Amino acid sequence: MRITSRFVLLVAVCTVWLTPAPATPQGSLADLVAPSRPTDLPGTEQESIVRAVVGRLATLAHLPAVTPQAPTITVTTLAASPAVFSVAVNGGAPLTLKVVGHIWDPRTYLPIAAALGVRPEPAATPSAGAAEANFVEGLTEPSLAHLIAEDTRVSTALRAQPRAAVLHEQAALLLGAMALREGANLYTDGRPAWSRLTAHLTMARAVNGAGTAKSSLPGRLADAVLLVDVGREIDALAALAPLAAAEQSAAVRVWATALRVRATGDWRLVDRPAKSPTIARVAYAKAYAWRVGLGPVLAWMDDANPDVDLPLLRVLLSQPLSVAVGNRFSAAGLMVELNEAEEAARAYGVAITDDPTALLRAIGRPTATGPFRVLDWPLVASTAERHILARLKSLYDAQRLLGQRERLRQMPIELEKTFATLPLVPTALALMGGDGAARHLAAAAAIVRARKDAIPPALWTALVYEGQRSARSVSWPTADVWFNPWQPDGTALTTSDRLARQGAPAPPLPMAEALHRLAPSDTWLSWRLAWWRVPSGRPTIAAVRAELGPAVAYDSGAIYRMFRGLDGTHQEYVVLGTQMCELNVDRCEELAQELLKEGRDAEAADELRRWFNRAQDRVAASNRVLWLTRYLLDQGQAADARAIAVSADDVGSGAGMLTLAEVKERQGDQDGAEAGYKRVQDRYGTAWHLGAYYLRRWKATGDTALRDRGLALVAQSFPSGFEAVPSAGAAPVDGVAFTNFGGRAAKAGLRKTDIIVGVDGVRVRSEAQFDVLMRASHDTAVQFTVWRDGAYATVKGTLPQRWLGTGLRTHRPGAGETQ
Q1: Beta strand segments in 251-323, E
Q2: 556-611, pLDDT tens digit by residue?
Q3: Which helix (H) or strand (E) holds 33?
Q4: Which of 242, 451, 510, 732 has the largest CB neighbor count within 10 A?
């Protein structure tokens, strides 16, 4: 895709800061929160969905009006699930609308179509033939340019034949193909496209006489797209089964495969994904990233060299960002989004100048001009806005992962200067904190109140959490009023976003089971359902496996939840760790740590070496090899230890630098070691590692000057200095507790229920203090002071590599336990 040079400059300004940030941004708060359309919203999300579908249906029913007038739709809820609404069009008599199937089901809206005068007209349906096959095949490569070209053709034909069912079904598939391109992370929102899609399918069924037997191939595919997108997996698979048959064309089978992958998340269904059409390649990448991880996706890209187009960039940047993905793709993602938006604006006749901010103004204040279009500039512009904001957040996250603290502080103000004309931009800026945080949160809250229907539930939840986390005094609209019910009727839509919101109670078990029947491959829902079945305890690993069903074979994230969140035996954890490692090499470290926890050091070292050599996430790998280098040194494999430490240091992570510094120290290069510890202090502002080094050197040399320097550098962790350990008295008010426990710690004489309050004669009050004291010596003979069975006890043991291999947390029973 061609990248416009002025967008390269604009993105460079966003990431490098060519000019210093002013004290206050350009523009006013009113500019940020002014909605781009009327805000007379219905009272709930469901009413908003009904209004959108009925409004589009009324527009379609009045074609061939050259420029249809926007109808006035009033919606009132009469009953909950199954939902019933009162609907009035243009002030007419209210009609009762009962949800059939689900809220986007075309059958729900057939009574409205009839009331609008749409009657069965089978003669109005033109024959399909080769043109239909070409249309379906063309949409397997749904670039925006191709979608706009097909939009022009289908819209022109619909204006001439507004009662042609096959044209409405083509329009529906066109909208479905556009919805499948969504990849805006928190801003992902297919609801506008689905509502239009539903209106077109309703028109087609009303003209055809309500049944689906007469649906054309685009109509059947559009119906399947809708079922997949709203989370009705079982219904979608039933609809796709005949479309996957061998007698179907190659293009139809590609569609069927891509939609089956999206419905189930089973990335294994795509054969040779790098050579597949875009809809199958992107479905594979999305499922592979979500179910397995970004690291394997990057490995696939490096090996198979697929085309890195905009849909694939959206997949990469819509996952939790890694350093590797942020470095490689965050800036490119923003540039390509801007470039595509400009091409779309010009295709729709939007007047923009060469000033890149002119495009942003056009996106922020879109207006529909000219005759009716299936896709129009307001729909395309709102899609562009969501994706641009998501890419701005990706840019921010990439800088955060690199530890660019000063840049992060200034970034929201710098972005505001350029992107303030996008109505939803305060929501992105509010999630970044930094300068102007209070003002951005207030503006975001105003946006949420004014444009509830434009805020997906994941974004709403993230904004509320950010306000609470930053302790800003911001009044948010009550989400439970707008998302009522939280799950749109008859759908299993984005359950992890809707049912996992902060403070949400568990849904009634029958409701959760009904959702699971709709979408059995929703592994988040499977996981939660297993917990909801045992409200007073924990499910077993076997119980969760049963809920997960076949998905456990291809979803390393589901396995990871069991590995980290459930009680089990060591052997059960080894089985889970092996499964994770087979699916995702970046998870092999989990297996190694389980082996290490139980004292299986040689096996743990072998797994860690394999993981370190193959891991895609080099930052994570560099962060977690300190024990391995200690072990190799102890085994006389100094050259291997040095090579691993050098490789870890080359990544540039703080932990990698510390690993090489320690290896140099152990090998007698004290000047190099000291320089390495100082480099970490200078880059990351962390002084205690250097302090612990000086304390070790003091013990080795007896130089009290080194002791004093060390104590000064660790003083932040020990504000009261080094305190003596207690030997008697009341229970401790603080210390360190185990979050998991294994044979390695047991061999050192510790117990799972111990509260560690001292290391080598020094009082320990927090996990941070414990880390300092464990790093303050290389001596494998360690003396712990613990609170055990109502008394203080001294535990002396040998701890190879001075490494417990367990999880720890700060223990403060009087003030709540903090991780």
Answers
A1: none
A2: 999 999 999 999 999 999 999 999 999 999 999 999 999 999 999 999 999 999 99
A3: helix 29-33
A4: 732
